Amino acid sequence: MTYLHDIPLDEAIAAWRQVLDAAGALRRLPSETLPVAEANGRVTAAPVWARISVPHYHAAAMDGFAVVAHDTVGATLTRPLHLGLGQQARYVDTGDPLPPGTDAVIPIEEAQRLGEGEGAVIEILAATTPWKNVRVMGEDIVATELVVPANHRLRPQDLGAIAGSGHTHVQVYRRPRIAILPTGTELVAPGADLKPGDIIEFNCIVLGAMAEEWGARVNRLPILADDYQTIKRAVLAAIEDHDLVVINAGSSSGSEDFTAPIIAELGEVVVHGLAIRPGHPAVLGCARGRPVVGIPGYPVSAMVTFDLLVRPLLQQWMGQEAEARPRVEAVLTRKILSPIGQDEYVRVTLGRVGDRIVATPLSRGAGVIMSMVRADGMAYIPRFSEGLNAGDTVTVDLLRAPGVIDRTIVHLGSHDLTLDLLADQLRRERPDRALSSGNVGSLSGLLALRRGEAHLAGSHLLDEETGEYNLSYIRRYLPGMPVVVLGFVGRTQGLIVPRGNPRQLGGLADLTRPDVVFVNRQRGAGTRVLLDYHLQRMGIDAAAIQGYDRVEFTHMAVAAAVQSHAADCGLGILAAARALDLDFIPLFEEQYQLIIPRVYYESDLLAPLLDIVRSPSFRSAVSALGGYDVAHMGEILHEVGG
Amino acid sequence: MTYLHDIPLDEAIAAWRQVLDAAGALRRLPSETLPVAEANGRVTAAPVWARISVPHYHAAAMDGFAVVAHDTVGATLTRPLHLGLGQQARYVDTGDPLPPGTDAVIPIEEAQRLGEGEGAVIEILAATTPWKNVRVMGEDIVATELVVPANHRLRPQDLGAIAGSGHTHVQVYRRPRIAILPTGTELVAPGADLKPGDIIEFNCIVLGAMAEEWGARVNRLPILADDYQTIKRAVLAAIEDHDLVVINAGSSSGSEDFTAPIIAELGEVVVHGLAIRPGHPAVLGCARGRPVVGIPGYPVSAMVTFDLLVRPLLQQWMGQEAEARPRVEAVLTRKILSPIGQDEYVRVTLGRVGDRIVATPLSRGAGVIMSMVRADGMAYIPRFSEGLNAGDTVTVDLLRAPGVIDRTIVHLGSHDLTLDLLADQLRRERPDRALSSGNVGSLSGLLALRRGEAHLAGSHLLDEETGEYNLSYIRRYLPGMPVVVLGFVGRTQGLIVPRGNPRQLGGLADLTRPDVVFVNRQRGAGTRVLLDYHLQRMGIDAAAIQGYDRVEFTHMAVAAAVQSHAADCGLGILAAARALDLDFIPLFEEQYQLIIPRVYYESDLLAPLLDIVRSPSFRSAVSALGGYDVAHMGEILHEVGG
Lengths: 642, 642
What we know:
Two copies of one chain form a homodimer.
Chain A: H1 9-22, E1 31-35, E2 48-49, E3 59-60, E4 64-67, E5 81-84, E6 90-92, E7 104-107, E8 111-114, E9 121-124, E10 134-135, E11 146-148, H2 156-164, E12 169-173, E13 177-182, E14 187-188, E15 199-200, H3 203-213, E16 217-220, H4 228-241, E17 244-248, H5 259-266, E18 267-272, E19 276-277, E20 283-287, E21 290-295, H6 299-317, E22 327-332, E23 336-337, E24 343-353, E25 356-361, H7 369-374, E26 377-381, E27 387-388, E28 393-398, H8 402-406, E29 408-413, H9 417-429, E30 434-439, H10 442-450, E31 457-459, H11 471-477, E32 483-497, E33 518-521, H12 526-538, E34 551-552, H13 555-563, E35 569-573, H14 574-579, E36 583-597, H15 598-601, H16 607-613, H17 616-625, E37 628-629, E38 636-640
Parallel strand pairs in A: 13-16, 13-17, 14-15, 17-21, 19-24, 22-25, 29-30, 33-34, 33-35
Antiparallel strand pairs in A: 1-12, 2-11, 3-10, 4-6, 4-7, 5-9, 8-9, 18-20, 20-21, 22-28, 23-27, 24-25, 24-26, 26-28, 31-36, 32-35, 32-36, 32-37, 32-38
Helix pairs in contact in A: 3-6, 4-5
C-alpha cells in the first residue's frame, strides 16, 4: 500500500515539471508538414515568411480603363478629355494586371465610351493620380515579410495568408499522442448488462474528448481489470508510442490501487496526492522519459485534475501559453464552507438577475457528473480560505460562453418534473434562452427572490390557516415586492411505496409503525410543510417516525430512495412514483405555482418561457405525464404588492 | 449586367430569411445517431432522458466496512465496540455495492481489525449514521430525469452523463453540408507557376475552415473559369446534395460577374449588394429550396460576409443561438472616417497600455488578408456614424482570446525588418507574450508614447543640429516622461534601385533627373526626416523630384515599389533591398533605437522582450541579415526625464 501526501497544486506541478524537464519530456514536439488547407487549428513549428508578394503584380482594383495618370491632367467637367481606346486607355477587369506603362485605373462608371473600332475613345471629366484604383504589388504582403511566427495557432485567415504568400504546405507540431487506460475490475463498457457493483466506464470518453479539443490524438485503450501485471504491461506498451500515458483510476491508496506502485516500478512517482478538492488522489509521475499520470476515478475529480495537469503539458509541447478561461465576478447565493489547506473548485450555476450575476453552488460531490453538466462555471476557493458567505463576491471561471449568462432564466425553488419538460421545450423553441433550475425548496425560493437571486420561484406552500397556497408566505417574505402568482400545475401528493405496497401502507398514520422506514424532505420544502401540517392535525409525533430525519431534496430523490429500499415510503408526487415504476397512495391535492416578481414577469428575458407555459403543446405534454391538473396553467391567479 | 443596390444588413437578412423560410430552407436539419464517444461538439436533436440511475445501486464511497448503522450505536473512545467481520461488518472497496441490509460504511482508517479467521472483529471508536460514506442510488442521476435538452452543443461532461445514464448512442443533427465554388478565370491553385494576372485561390481554404469550425462538412469544388454555363451547371449539381451553395466570387456587377444572373435564372436573387464595408457586393439568393450565396472575391470581404451571412444559417439549422464574440471597450489611437449609410467593420490591433486598452486601426483595404492575420479584433462603426476620432472609445469584437491582449507588447513607431525577427523569436521563446507592431513612423511613435498608446517606439529621428538621434525629439515631445533609450541597430540608408542600377544613379543629386521616378516615405518617418535633411543641405528642391509626393509606410513597401518598376528608386535600408534582391547605393549611417517609457521598461510585460534583445542568439540572427551594426544592441544609451 502506498500513502498519499497531499501537497499544494503549484508545488506539485513545479516538482513534476522539474523531473519531466530533466527527462527531456518538456521539449517541443517534432514537426510535420501539412497541406495548408488541412492545418486549421494546428500550431506552427516554424515562422512562415512570405515567398511572394501579394499581389505579385500591379492589379486593377476596379473594372475600368488603365491609363497613364499623367495623360489625364487637365480633364474637368467643362473640358472633357478623350483618350484613345486600346492605346491611351485599355479596358481591365478587377484583378487584371496593369498593362506596362500604365499607372492608374479610371472606373468604368467614370468614363464614357465614344465611337467604335479604331477611332473609339473614352471621355473623362476629371484627372486621376498615379496608382489610383490600383492594388500595387505587395500592398497586402511583401515577399520575405513575416506572415505568422512560430508557435502560432493557425486560424482560417492565417491559412489564407500562407497560401496567398506562395506556400502549399506549412510546418506544424505533430499532434500530441495520448494513451488513456481505463482500469478497474468493476468497469463495464456502455451498453453492457448491469449488475450491482458494475460501473459504466465513461471517464475515458470525457477525458478523451477534452484532450481532442486541446489538439491531441487520443488512444482510448480497452478496460483493464485491477491486476498489477496486466496494467504494468499495458503502461509499458503505451509509453513506447505515446507522449503521455494516463491511467484512470487506481490512483488512491487502497489495496487495489496499483497506479502509484506501477509508476514507481517503471520510473518515478513525483507526487501522490494533491491538496485540491475535488481531485486529491492524483499521481504525477515520469517513466522512460515520458509523463505518466494517475487520474482519480470519480468523474468530477477526473475532469478537474486532467484539466489542471494535462492541458498545460499539451500547451508546453506546442509552444502555447496556458489560456485562462473567461471569468466573471458573481454574488454567491449560498454559504460555502471549504477546508483550509485545500484549493477547492466549486461548480456553480450563473444567471444575471437584475444588475448582478448570481452564482448558486451545485453539488460538491466528486462523483456527480451532472454537476459538471449543469454548471455554468467553476468558483475557485483558495486553500488559505475557510470558505465564503452568501452575498460574497466570487470569481468564476466560465464553462459556457459569457453571453449565455445573460440569457439564462434562473429558477430557484421547489422542484417539479414539469420544470425539466419546460427547460427542454424552451431550449427547443428558443435556443436563445436557457432555464437553470436550483432545487432549493419552496421557502428558500421565495427568500432567493427577496435577495434578488432568481427570476422566478416554483412554490407550493400551504397556509395552514387559510388553506390557500403561497399567498400568506409571499406577503410575509416578500413585503413590498410586486409579484405575479401564475398558475402552473395542480398535483397529487401521496405516499410513494414499492410496487405492490409490501408494507400495506394506507396513510400517514402508518408512518409510526416500527416496521416502516420513512424518507423525508428538507425543511422549507412545500412537501415537508404539507407533511408537518397533516401530522399536527392528526396528532402524530414526528419523533416517532423512523427516517423522519433523513432528508432528500427532490421528489425524484425520494422515489429513488424507495426504489432502492433505502426507505419503505416517502411523501411525494405521483409523477415521481410513475417515473420509477413505483406504487402511489394518493393523499392530498395541492397547487404548485410560479411566483414571479413583476419586473421579470414583464421582461423580454422571461417572455418566451411564459409563452410556452401558455401554449397548448406544453399543456398537453404535461397532461400526458399523468397526475397533473393543468386547468390553471399560465393563468394569473394573484397580483401582489407594488 | 446586373445592378447592385446596397441595402442595410439587417434589412437584407430579414428579406432573405423570409424567402428561405417560405422555401422551407430554415428548418432544422435531419438528425443522425452517433456513438456517444463520437458526438463531442455536435448538437442534440432530441432531449436525452436518463435510462438508469447513477449510481444504479447503493455504493460504498470509501474503502472500509459496510455495517448497519443501528449496530454501531453506543461506540465511543472509552467504550469501543466490536463488530464481527463477515457478519456485522463486511469489507468493501470504494464503488462496491453495499451488502443487502447494510446502510453505512466505516472507513478503513477508522476501524481496527482484531483477531483472525472466524473470530475476527473490527473495533470502532464512534457510532456512524445511516447512509454515511455511501453514494446512494440516484445520487448523481435519477432514472427518467433530463440529462441534456435538445439543441444542446455536447461537451465532454455531457458525453459522460449520457453514457453514464445508460445510453450508447445519442441523436444529433447531421452536419450541414456546404459546397464552396471558386470561380474566376484568373484563379490558380496554390503551388502553380504564377504569371501576372494569376491569383492564388485561397478564399475557399479560408471559408471552408471557418465553416468547419462552425460544424459544417465542407466540399471545396475545383476552380471554375468565368463561364456562365459551366458555373450554372456546377451550382445546379451542388444544390442537389448540399444544404448551402457558396459561389466565390463574381458577385459584383461586372461583365464577367455571373453569380447574380445564375442565381436569378435558377431561383431568386433576394438581395444584391449590402451596405457594409468591406463586403458590399454580396448576393443573397434561393434556388430549388436551398440558400445560394455569392460571396465577394476580396479576401476580407469574403470573410466578413461569410461570417455575417452563413454562420447564422448554420446555427439556425442546428437550433443554436448566434453567439456574440467576446467584446472589449478600447480607446482608438487614430481617427477613422467612415461613410454614412455603410456599416463598417474596421480591423484593429489591441493592447493594454497602462490602465486602458488601446485599439490601432489596420489597413482597411478589402483585399488585405494580412490585416485579418494581424487584427486582434473588429471595431464596428454603424452606418449612422461618420466615423470616430482618436481618443474615442470603441467597442471591439475580439478575434483572439481576451487574455492575449494583456500579454501583448504594443510597438508603434518606425518599421525595421529586425522587428519581425524579434516578434518571431519572442513568440518562440515566450508563448505568453506577443509583439504587435504598428508601422506609423518614428515621430508618430513618440506621439503615441505621449498619449499612452504604446509600450515602446522604434525611432531613428536625426537631430539636424546635433547629429544625435532621437534625444532632442524626446525632450520636445515627451516632456516630463521618464524614458530609456535603448540601443538597437545601426543601419545603412541608401537608394534602393533595380538590379544592375539601370538608371546609373549615384546619389540624391540624381533624383531631380527627368528620367528618374522616386518613391518617398510618409511625413514623420525617420527616413523622410533624413532625406529632407540631406536635400536641404545639398540645396535640392523637393518639388523637382518626380514621385516625391507618392509615399509608402515601410521600407519593404518602398522596395516593392522599386521591384515592380512603379518607381526607379527610393530611400531605404540595405536589408529591404536584399530581401527583394535589389541593388543598393549606400549613403548614410544611422541609429535605430528603441524608446521605452521607464514604467514599461521595468515591467514584467517587457522583460522577456528585453532579454531577447540582449541575447547572443538574437544578435547573431540580426547580424546574419547583413547591413546591421549590432554593437549597441540592448545597451542603455540614455535615461531621460523623471
